[in-house]
Write a structure and sequence with these properties.
By secondary structure, the chain is an alpha/beta fold. The protein is 31% helix and 30% strand. A hairpin with a 5-residue loop joins strand 11 and strand 12. The longest helix has 17 residues.
Amino acid sequence: MIRWIMLVLCLGVVSPVLASKPFIIKDIRIEGLQRISAGTVFNYLPIKVGQEFNQQKSAQSVKALFKTGFFKDIKLNVEGRVVVITVVERPSIAEINVTGNKVIEKKLLKKSFDKLGFAKGRVFNRSLLDKIEQELRRVYFAQGKYGVKIKTTVTPMTRNRVSVDINISEGRAARIRKINIIGNKTFKDKKLLRLFKLTTPGAFTFYTKNDQYSKQKLAGDIEKLKSFYKDRGYFGFKVNSTQVSISPNKKDIYITINITEGPQ
């Protein structure tokens, strides 16, 4: 009984009548719906008219409806042999506005949002918006934009809808100040670094942007380094670690690549 009471407190509000008297359901009534159809709710409910209703069925019903993500509050009550479920819907997304993005095109952003289920007309979920913020930061960090700032604003609208505004301040990409290769004995740093696309600031990096850190470019440079050694018979060559550190002001990047050449 204690376990049942705790479950009710966690999942919703249920009539105390259910604690002692199971009964055969005469009718099921859904109240509080705005956009979601009653048919949709009934599809998720594990109970039907003509079935026995008891404590277990009550808990299962509330849990099943919460699991849909459609509702932020659910109350279950009993009137005679009628089960009354009162719900409060989560708002839907009326519009999504993204401003300040230059590195990532809006079409690509929309595509990734759609994959996550964050789109116009879908149910708004704050935790999903937080996840999108984290993903955007990850993408910008991979482009060396460590100073990126993302601000989201959710504005309530009529008919239980919201407008979502995502403002991105990309900031300047961090510049590579030093690339260190540790463990090389046969070939000098200068020779190895000539293989790299990434480089420190120079006369032409204003145009090439190769002094701006990119995770993808670094991965490509490491593959070139591996190929260079293996083409010369160093089949035991290994990259032990790759470390990327950033200055406190988030403007300078330092890359350290630790290698083992192995025998030729």
